[in-house]
Amino acid sequence: MKARDSGACDPPLADSYNEISSNTTHPIKLRQYQQNCELISECELPVVDLRGLRSCDRRERQACVEAIAEASTEWGFFQVLNHGISSELLSEIRREQIKLFKLPFEKKASSRLLNDSYRWGTPTAISPRHFNWSEAFHVPLSKISEEGRNCYGEFNSLRGVMEKVAGAMSELAGTLAGVLAENMGCSRKGFPESCNKSTCFLRLNHYPPCPLPGEVFGLMPHTDSDFLTILCQDQVGGLQLMKDTKWVAVKPNPDALIVNIGDLFQAWSNDVYRSVEHKVTTNAKMDRYSIAYFMCPSYESAIGSCRKPSAYREFTFGEYRKQVQEDVKIVGQKVGLPRFRL
């Protein structure tokens, strides 16, 4: 990925970050914050070839199922090859995505593009370590097909590409969720059937070059509040995850998609599968782009453990999201599953 053109327009991230820093009584620099979390060398996540799931050989298929389950238990993250989504399609949406983010900030923020789904920085940040140096379009799948000048504007070709990517990632997420449920010996009733176009999201991410690398996150440490996330990232790198109390830098693999377990799957599996803290670091010179699919249920869906005794009280996804939002507002960051542990 080439360095950003000097004439390109970024969101006013520096202004927002400086305002937060100046209003913080005791600012916490990221270097201080990360002292207790040692970074180990770049590594490659477990890689699973999904051709095994389509094999007529029962033992080969079972080996693939076990590999997915083991990675979900030990890492909470894994990579998939032969996932069924063509490289041409992923390249096409990446080109459209780059064109979209090159728009002037004012147009992205005020033109209601992609159903007014544009977000930048962190409006709820209460200190520098809560700030995200990034921008994104976070689009519900049900809104992708909507027409109208204010939805796509001159980016009308983006609609068809997003529809194809959303459909392909939905199918892949459903397959992987079914495999993980199968491995638990549990029924899929209520999950993942409750995850559909009306509840899931596609997110286009952009991390502009940052003049303060080491002082601010591209995306602050967090876990995902869904069942599964599928990520297509570029080759710039920057994704890190927590492994055995240490941050692991994920080595980009051009042929693979990254899959990670979300909070709801950890609760549903009674802590068998792990929703792992992860973050994105900033880069001083390079733009970073990624596309993420979030497999979410309806807000009314009850989340209960598939095995008893349960480590968590039963809750709805809506209740979970409300608690997350309250915690972010009060303490500046998500607390998540510990709020619901028995």
Give a concise summary:
With 342 residues, the chain is of the alpha+beta class. It has helices spanning 13-23, 30-33, 58-74, 87-101, 105-110, 113-116, 141-144, 149-152, 157-184, 263-268, 317-331; strands at 39-43, 47-49, 77-81, 118-120, 135-140, 201-207, 219-222, 228-233, 239-243, 246-250, 257-261, 278-280, 288-295, 302-303, 315-316. GO terms for molecular function: gibberellin 2-beta-dioxygenase activity; metal ion binding.
Give the overall average pLDDT.
Answer: 89
Task: Quickly give the structural class.
Answer: alpha+beta
**Total beta strands:** 15
Give the N-to-C terminal Cα separation.
Answer: 47 Å
Dominant shape: globular
The biggest beta sheet is recorded as: 8 strands, mixed
How would you name the oligomeric state of the polypeptide chains in this document?
single chain
Strand-residue proportion: 15-25%
Spans of at least 5 consecutive residues with low confidence: 2-8, 32-36
Description:
Belongs to the iron/ascorbate-dependent oxidoreductase family. GA2OX subfamily. This protein has 342 residues and is an alpha+beta fold. It has a single domain, classed as Sandwich (Jelly Rolls). It is 33% helix and 20% strand. A hairpin with a 2-residue loop joins β9 (239-243) and β10 (246-250). The longest helix is centred in the middle third of the chain and has 28 residues, at 157-184. It is globular and about 55 Å long. 37% of the residues are buried.
